[in-house]
Each structure stands twice: as C-alpha cells, then as structure tokens.
Amino acid sequence: MALRNAIMSTLLEGEASGYDLTKAFDASAANFWMATPQQLYRELDRMKADGLISARVVEQERRPNKRLFSLTEAGRAALRSFTASPPRPSAIRDELLVQVQAVDAGDQEAVRAALLERLVWAQAKVARYERLRARLLDGRFEDEYLATAERIGPYLTLMRGLSFERENQRWCEQALAVLDRRRTAAPAPGREPAQGPV
C-alpha cells in the first residue's frame, strides 16, 4: 500500500496541516501504517503535484504560515479505486523474530533484552490505544458508537491495532517465560550434567 492511500484516508477527517497529519498518524494511522514526518511531508508535495490534494496557506501572527491540505475530487476517486481493489496479503517481516529464530546459537541475554523492550513497547501502545478508544467512545457503549458514528473506519482499525499489540504482549511474555525456564534448567557453565548409573 502506498503511503498516499494512508494519508488520503486520514484526510477524510477533514482539512489538516502537515503537523496535524503527523499527530493523526501517530494517534491513529500508526495502528496499521508507520511513517516519519519527513516521509509524510515529501508525499504531501507529490500528492499535491499529482492533483490528489489541494493546499492553502494560512497566515499566522507570531508563527510561521502553515499549509492546510484537503482531498480533491481526484483524491477521493483515487481512494475509491484503492478500496475497490483487493489488497495484497500481508506478511510479517520482523527482525526480532529472526533473532529469536537464532537464539540457540546467539546471545540469549541480548535476545531476552530485545523481547523485554518489545514487551514494554507493546504495553505502552495498548495503554495509548485504550485511551484513544475511550476518547472515541466518549461515554457511549461500543454498539451505540458503531451504529451512530459518522465514520467507523478509524475505530475498526484501532481495534485491529489493539488486538495486534495485545498479541505481541502475550507472545513476548510466553517467549520470555520459555527462555527463563531453559536458563534455570541449564547446567552451570563448565559443569557436565549429572550422569546416571551406567
């Protein structure tokens, strides 16, 4: 999926500056698509050149002027075309999984530390996504929200992000428990395991 499709789906919320889009990506689109601010700004310039978005300059006192971006009809048509095409299957490409795959021949303590870091990251993202969920629901029950909200796409992608990070958390805890059990069961370095009667 091109970054532009993620940007256009975010602009469905309305006109936004590059800064607003960066914050929006961090708060919602990060559930399913990561991008740096530099990548966003470069893509916004390309999208404007391609006629998918328009930009207007807002003059500000005591602060630099800012550009506000919005979808054009061509952008909405491109987004409709994108949603009409079947997506390519997703695939996992995760460096941590390669490290875990090689843990038996590698530095087990370093892999364990990487798992702990991923666990903390997943826990923080779950907490952040739960706060966003509460903000979206705004005191409503989920069924009521899903029946009456103007747009449900952001909520549905948030739910996917939550389940993904909860699964990351569960898997990290499981992998750490296995490594810890093996560490406590392993003989001390330089000692041979006890031999039974021959």
Description:
Helix content is 61%, strand content 7%. The chain contains eight helices and three strands, in the order αβααββααααα. It has a three-stranded antiparallel beta sheet with strand order 1-3-2. The model has no long low-confidence stretch (mean pLDDT 89).
Summarize the structure.
The protein is mainly alpha-helical and 198 residues long. It has helices spanning 3-11, 18-27, 37-49, 73-84, 95-101, 108-137, 142-148, 153-185; strands spanning 16-17, 53-58, 66-71.
Mean pLDDT figure: 89
Tell me the overall shape. elongated
Side by side, the strands of the main sheet go: 1-3-2
Q: How far is the N terminus from the C terminus? A: 63 Å
The main β sheet shows up as:
3 strands, antiparallel
Proportion of beta-strand residues: 5-15%
Helix fraction?
55-70%
Low-pLDDT residue intervals, each spanning 5 or more residues: none
How many helices does DSSP assign? Answer: 8
In terms of structural class, how would the helical and strand content be classed?
A: mainly alpha
Number of structurally distinct domains: 2
The count of DSSP E runs of length 2 or more, i.e. the number of strands, is 3
Specify Rg, calculated over alpha carbons.
Answer: 23 Å
What sequence of helices (H) and strands (E) makes up the elements? HEHHEEHHHHH
Using brief descriptors, characterize the structure shown.
198 residues, mainly alpha, 8 helices
SSE blueprint and pairings:
Elements: H1 3-11, E1 16-17, H2 18-27, H3 37-49, E2 53-58, E3 66-71, H4 73-84, H5 95-101, H6 108-137, H7 142-148, H8 153-185
Antiparallel strand pairs: 1-3, 2-3
